[in-house]
Design a protein that fits this description.
The structure is a single chain. With 189 residues, the chain is of the alpha+beta class. Helices cover 35% and strands 20% of the residues. Strand 3 and strand 4 form a beta hairpin. It is globular, with a radius of gyration of 17 Å.
C-alpha cells in the first residue's frame, strides 16, 4: 500500500467516521458516500482498495501488481483531483450502505456514556496513542468490543493487508493496552 498526503482535507467535515474505505468499484458510486476519485483509482488494473483518512489517501495494490507500472497513474489521478478542487467524497442522505464501502458509521472510538470504565480507558488509549500511529502508516483501527478480557479490533486501510499487522496488533497494541489498562486486558484480537 502507498499513502498519499495531498495537503488538504479529504473527508467531509460532517462525516461521523474518521475514515472511508472502498473495496469494490460499485461501492465508489453508491450512496451514502460516492467518490469519483476512488472509482477512477479502482478502475486501474491491480488496485484492490482505496482508503481515505482525514487528510490522506491510501491505495492498496494486488500482490501480483507492480508499483513501478501503476504508481504513475495513481499519482496522476490523485494530483489531478486535488489540484482541480474536486470534492473527493460526496455525502448523500440514505440509511443503507453498499457492500464494499466501509466507514459510514459513527466513530467506534467515540465516547459513549454507557461504556464501562475499562472500555472508556481502552477507547481513550486507542484514540490518543494508537490511532495516530496507525494513521501515520495509512490505516486506522476500529474498536469492535471487549469480551472476557479480550479487546476486539479491526485494522483498516494499509494496515488491513500489511504483512506486519499481526506484529503491530500483538506486540504494539496489545502490550500498550495491557500496560496502561492493566490486568482487565489479556489479549487483543
Amino acid at each position: 500500500a502507498l499513502k498519499f498526503l495531498p495537503n488538504r482535507q479529504i473527508l467531509p467535515q460532517d462525516l461521523s467516521s474518521p475514515f472511508l474505505e472502498y473495496l469494490t468499484p460499485r461501492s465508489t458510486l453508491a450512496p451514502p458516500h460516492p467518490s469519483p476519485l476512488a472509482a477512477r483509482l479502482l478502475s486501474i488494473d491491480g488496485i484492490n482498495s482505496v482508503f481515505y483518512g482525514p487528510d490522506f489517501i491510501t491505495v492498496t495494490k494486488a500482490a501480483d501488481a507492480n508499483w513501478a507500472h501503476i504508481k504513475p497513474e495513481v499519482f496522476s489521478l490523485i494530483t489531478e483531483a486535488v489540484n482541480s478542487g474536486e470534492q473527493v467524497v460526496s455525502t448523500i442522505n440514505t440509511t443503507s450502505s453498499p457492500a464494499g464501502q466501509y466507514g459510514n458509521v459513527p466513530d467506534s472510538l467515540a465516547y459513549n456514556e454507557q461504556d464501562s470504565e475499562v472500555v472508556g480507558m481502552i477507547k481513550e488509549l486507542l484514540e490518543t496513542r494508537i490511532r495516530p500511529a496507525i494513521q501515520d502508516d495509512g490505516g486506522d483501527v476500529d474498536y469492535c468490543g471487549f469480551e472476557n478480557g479480550k479487546v476486539l479490533l479491526k485494522l483498516r486501510g494499509a494496515c488491513r493487508t500489511c504483512d506486519s499487522s499481526t506484529v503491530t496488533l500483538k506486540n504494539g497494541i496489545e502490550s500498550m493496552l495491557m500496560h496502561y489498562v492493566g490486568p482487565s486486558v489479556s489479549q487483543s484480537l
